[in-house]
């Protein structure tokens, strides 16, 4: 599986499943690849999602979504099935997590999302609906994605010092410098919980502590993911830290440009980033 195949199948899957469900276009690696849909087609896709949520048949849902892919000659059927399974299960809030629009982060503009816990989770539990697949990318490919501001799903392996593209429902999980979850290779657990085909490229999410219902699910992307030492991080933990520092300094904690003007940030976290594997 190449990174290009993974990105295209993920873009197509999210365009057919997640975007109609949310009502807006989520982030894509290849903007020109997903189809342009009419209002009638969007309505039909929403119906397919609702039918899946009722009958829980991934196979039947895939057959219906596949009708919208007839114009594509480069489909990787097996990979598309996996990405659709990942995205569909993100919409099933009975599993314990749900996707929501999110306008918190400046780079997201109008197409940001977040993943919310829809029930209480215990420490060290696997959240079965949040998983994805990885494909290794070269430094040149990573630089191209960074320049185009499309490196939102790039992760680094601490085991072999390589960079990977991580896509699927797991890529909708936002970063926090005080993350409540971590990523890991969870092949057998993902297979056990979801019945989905899981390989060595399957990455899942495990809780680091107890999560309350309606709490956002987060992981830590890495020390320098948002600029040097994450000085440009906009996560809630950094906001709380900024508020405390500005309170002690006697300044207004809600000045939007204060973070970037003063380069205030949380103290460094653990050296091993949960968003690595």
Could you list some keywords that capture this structure?
277 residues, alpha+beta, 5-stranded antiparallel beta sheet, 35% helix, 17% strand, disordered C terminus, methyltransferase, transferase
Descriptive notes:
The protein is of the alpha+beta class and 277 residues long. 35% of the residues lie in helices and 17% in strands. The protein has nine helices and nine strands. The protein has helices at residues 3-16, 18-22, 39-55, 58-66, 77-91, 139-147, 187-194, 236-249, 258-262, and strands at 97-101, 113-117, 126-137, 154-156, 163-168, 174-175, 181-185, 202-207, 218-219. The protein has a five-stranded antiparallel beta sheet with strand order 4-5-3-8-7. α1 packs across α5 and α3 packs antiparallel against α4. The protein is globular and about 50 Å long. Residues 193-198 and 252-277 have low confidence and may be disordered.
Shape: globular
Going across the biggest sheet, name each strand in turn. Answer: 4-5-3-8-7
Query: Which residues form runs of ≥5 with pLDDT under 50?
Result: 193-198, 252-277
Strand content: 15-25%
Helical residue percent? 25-40%
Return the structural class. Answer: alpha+beta
Number of E-type strands: 9
The succession of helices and strands, N to C, reads HHHHHEEEHEEEEHEEHH
Measure the end-to-end span. Answer: 19 Å
